[in-house]
Design a protein that fits this description.
By secondary structure, chain A is an alpha/beta fold. Chain A has three domains: about 1-165, Ribosomal Protein S5, domain 2 (2-Layer Sandwich), CATH 3.30.230.10; about 190-430, Rossmann fold; about 435-505, Helicase, Ruva Protein, domain 3 (Orthogonal Bundle), CATH 1.10.8. Chain A has helices at about 40, 45-55, 80-90, 120-130, 145, 160-165, 200-210, 225-235, 240-250, 275-280, 290-295, 310-315, 320-325, 365-375, 380, 395-400, 405-425, 435-440, 445-460, 465-480, 490-495; strands at about 1-10, 15-25, 30-35, 65-70, 105, 110, 115, 135-140, 155, 215, 270, 280-285, 290, 300-305, 325-330, 335-340, 340-345, 385-390. Chain B has a five-stranded mixed beta sheet. The interface of A and B includes residues 25, 29, 33 and 34 of A.
């Protein structure tokens, strides 16, 4: 007696469909799971057996062989429990076969038969829908996540008993409604709260508009962290497709709250500087799981105390900073994760933090400052478009009221600038992603701008890469200004963000 | 009460439960099966464990993984060459307090835990 139903396993941030086949035959009694199961999948045998028995149904005293196809794909997670239980009940004739066609089954069983949600449900539901599956039976707690997929009818079940009576047509489960999260008060910090720091505020606006990576340098307490936390609030809101993509990543990582299945804000990740290489880029045992740079996809990655990060971790960021994705290779499996984030780094100008501070003297020796700066390699710094100094606040700024512009107004300008870029490339692409050839083509300079840039090349000994970087930033500044041609004032402003601050001190 | 007496008592109990006794003390070079019976279509291999005192745990607890493996091999030997039938392993525990019948006492995964690949075919 043979039966088969559909289930799935997470694979990177995607998912692969898995056919769960079950054969029940006479012979020495036993329950074998084949098809490259990881430990937690093999252990499903005990959960499935107890759940079926505790439901008052018969667990066959026969030889049960379950196969998870395709055989060469590693199967992870406890999500196969429900599919295994259903196939055994089908194969022993305890369930009618007519409701299981084109149906995805996902859920982890408890010993009493109650169902638990599984991570990566959104990705698995999407994969099932793409493969032409029309309905899914999933655990109650992950049903809202699966229901986000349009064109998939999702039945939510709290217990194996619900699934059994549903498949026996004794009970109807209403399809889980597709619920989009309602707007709620933003939890980012509003730029209006930031005092002073006009220069840094402007840099953030440019970074948001053009997708540029930023490095802020300043003494402790100047407001670097506060400024960084303002960045998500001035980025354009997620489009529905982007929201789904980001949610998929967070679902696989098990970070989606069950009551809010769809991310509606750009992610803001701020890993501590003790983070490991694998924690940053992704990896781990078995199928690689996404790291912080992937969790920050379409959002902001904030690295505070940048030079304190492990050098290996920072160097690993070079590829994703440029290509906006990372390929992780582990024991025969290679997975490519998207990693299109805006990097915002913060650091002190020197180990004691007071270099360039008008009030407190710097206590560092010159070689200490050199060693501190050297922790950031040239190639890493080359990938950062905007360098901005965040100085100590003056007494007037500190005691005065926060007079800054609110995030909402800044965001409106950012959205307009991004729209210009989208029209230029005919697809969502930011100025930061321009290649050198595109820069020459799409950054027309006015006559005065050309003249100014020529003088800058001589004066600041701009390298080819520095020249391209300045042009890209100038392009974004011109976009914020609504100007198709880059004018002299745009170039002049871009030049301010060109180099590591306090280098001359 | 020990050995033979315990097995006789176990046989009585199984018969009263509708089991047809097929063989007793079936031997091969690798071991012995105390009782082989038939419950409907299902072939039942029964191991009888007797204890004179429950001080050192119940008799059923004395079936070690090695003992289970031995029973498993004996059952394979008994079944070889015969057409496949449903099979069950039972244990009858005999103690001064009376008899306890444990149907479906163990299965393949209890015999060889952790062994996933190349399962021994019956």
């Amino acid at each position: 007696m043979f039966a088969q139903v559909l289930s799935a396993t997470p694979f990177g941030i995607e998912a692969r469909l898995v056919e769960v086949q079950c054969d029940v035959s006479p012979g020495l009694p036993g329950f074998t799971v084949v098809g490259l199961p990881e430990k937690e999948v093999s252990e499903a045998r005990e959960r499935v057996r107890s759940a079926i028995r505790n439901l008052g149904l018969e667990f066959p005293q026969l030889r049960i062989t379950a196969n998870l196809a395709p055989a060469d794909l590693r199967k992870e997670g406890a999500g196969f429990d429900l599919a295994l239980a259903v196939t055994i009940l089908l194969a022993t004739g305890q369930l009618p076969p007519d409701r299981v066609h084109h149906t995805l089954f996902l859920g982890e069983l408890a010993l009493d038969g109650s169902l638990r949600g599984v991570r990566g449900t959104l990705a698995m539901a999407l994969a099932a829908k793409d493969a032409g599956t029309s309905q899914a039976v999933v655990a109650e707690s992950s049903a809202p996540e699966a229901a986000l997929v349009e064109g998939l009818t999702v039945y939510s079940a709290a217990h194996l008993g619900d699934v059994v009576s549903f498949l026996r047509k004794e009970k109807d489960i209403p399809p889980c409604p597709r619920r989009l999260p309602e707007e709620e008060a933003p939890d980012w910090i509003d730029l209006a709260l930031v005092r002073g720091q006009e220069h840094a505020r402007r840099a953030l606006e440019i970074a948001a508009a053009g997708g540029h990576h930023v490095l802020m340098v300043g003494p402790p307490g100047a407001g670097k962290s506060l400024l960084a936390q303002c960045l998500p609030g001035i980025l354009p809101p997620l489009t529905p497709e982007e929201a789904l993509e980001a949610s998929k990543i967070h679902s696989v990582a098990g970070l989606l709250p069950p009551n809010r299945p769809l991310l509606h804000r750009r992610p803001f990740r701020s890993p501590h500087h003790t983070i490991s290489y694998v924690g940053m880029v992704g990896g781990g045992h078995g199928i690689p799981s996404p790291g912080e740079i992937t969790l920050a996809h379409l959002g902001v990655l904030f690295l505070d105390e940048l030079p304190e990060f492990d050098r290996k971790v920072l160097e690993a960021l070079r590829q994703p900073l440029e290509e906006r994705r990372i390929t992780v290779v582990r024991a025969g499996i290679s997975v490519t994760f998207p990693a299109s984030f805006t990097l915002i780094g913060a650091m002190n100008p020197c180990p004691c933090g007071h270099l360039g501070d008008p009030l407190r003297p710097c206590r560092c020796r010159p070689h200490e400052i050199v060693a501190y700066r050297k922790k950031l390699s040239g190639p890493f710094l080359d990938r950062i478009d905007l360098f901005v100094e965040v100085p100590r606040l003056t007494r007037e700024e500190l005691l005065g009221e926060g007079t800054g512009e609110p995030s909402e107004r800044v965001r409106a300008r950012v959205v307009a600038a991004r729209e210009l870029q989208r029209q230029r490339w005919k697809r969502p692409k930011t100025n930061a992603e321009l290649g050198p050839r595109e820069v020459r083509q799409f950054c027309p300079l006015g006559p005065q701008a050309k003249d100014l840039l020529a003088r800058a090349v001589d004066r600041f000994a701009l390298t080819a890469r520095g020249y391209v970087r300045t042009l890209k930033v100038a392009r974004t500044i011109a976009d914020l200004d609504g100007s198709e041609t880059i004018q002299a004032q745009h170039v002049a402003e871009a030049l301010q963000y060109r180099a590591f601050p306090l280098d001359q001190v | 009460m020990r050995g033979k007496d315990a097995e006789n008592e176990a046989c009585e109990l199984l018969r009263s439960q509708g089991l047809k006794i097929v063989a007793r003390n079936w031997r091969w070079q690798g071991g012995e099966i105390d009782i082989i019976g038939k419950d409907g279509d299902t072939l039942v291999f029964v191991e009888v464990r007797a204890r004179t005192s429950s001080e050192f745990g119940s008799p059923a607890e004395t079936i070690t993984p090695a003992k289970r493996a031995k029973l498993w091999r004996s059952a394979q030997a008994f079944l070889s060459g015969k057409p496949p039938v449903p099979v069950r392993f039972d244990v009858v525990a005999v103690s001064p307090n009376g008899l306890v019948h444990i149907p479906d006492a163990f299965r393949e995964e209890d015999v060889r835990p952790g062994v996933e690949r190349n399962p021994v075919r019956d």
